[in-house]
Amino acid sequence: MSAQPGWYPDPAGQPGMYRYWDGQQWAAEASPTPGGSGAPSDSGDSQGGGRSGPGLWIAIAVGALVIVLIAIFAIPRLGDVLGGDGTEVPPSQGDVCPPAPETPIPPDDQPGDGRVHGGGMSYPLLGSPWGAPEIETRMPFGAGVIGQIVTVEPNYAPGQSWVASVHIGRLVAGDGFYSPEAASEIVVRCILGSFYGDNEVTRSDQINEARTVEGHEAWLVETELSFDIENLRTTNETAIILIVAIDAESAGIFFASIPNTAPELLQPARDSMDAIRIEG
């Protein structure tokens, strides 16, 4: 399913009600009948040219995640095919996961206080061998994601290197209709598609549980990912995904991936997660 214009079950949760998604935003009114008065009419006015601002991409990502979460809860036993129990994860995630925005959303201001800031959160800046903070644009449903990497296998394929990473940023997921637990499964699924492409990945969750971060509701998934990629010595890695409810209208995401060929980097990644602070 993709965020195409059309009628969908009301994301506000009203039983038997539908709301129109025009490709950018939800209609103000819900209707008991798809095709009812909630769909805005075409006035014939259009705006051409110019660049799409960050708000457009936020709206698209919000709509995509709303629709995906509706599908997850509306279709019985869909969770059985989402991995997490040692099953193979389908390589193609394009039907449910949003594309990376053409115009990346900038990360939070970095005040130079020895911490990396993103999504209303921060973690302590990691020293050598971790590199300087840099923007990451591939994070599904992520906005203003920033983090640090260590190159583990340089140039294992032409123009490609395998890295360990720690990232933090904002999770674009609407206005309070979901919980961190509800968002975690689809976000993890889309991360696999975004970061591992068409490679077959087997996922085995080690931790999948509720947490709190400075009193804020959170959900943690730590999973072992196994794969066999041509010319790559790394065959598995630990992925850590923490989703934190910052307030009623926003959430933050912490993501780390540590290859088995660099096990010494796993504890610093876990320590970074444990040292997250809520900012502002």
UniProtKB/TrEMBL annotation:
Keywords recorded for this protein, A-Z: Membrane, Transmembrane, Transmembrane helix
InterPro entries (UniProt xref): DUF2510
Residue ranges with Low complexity bias: 27-45
Residues covered by region (Disordered): 22-51, 86-120
Entry keyword annotation includes Secreted: no
Entry keyword annotation includes Lyase: no
TM region(s), chain numbering: 56-75
Boundaries of every DUF2510 domain copy: 5-35
Compositional bias of kind Pro residues: 98-109
Name this protein carries in UniProt: DUF2510 domain-containing protein
Organism: Parenemella sanctibonifatiensis
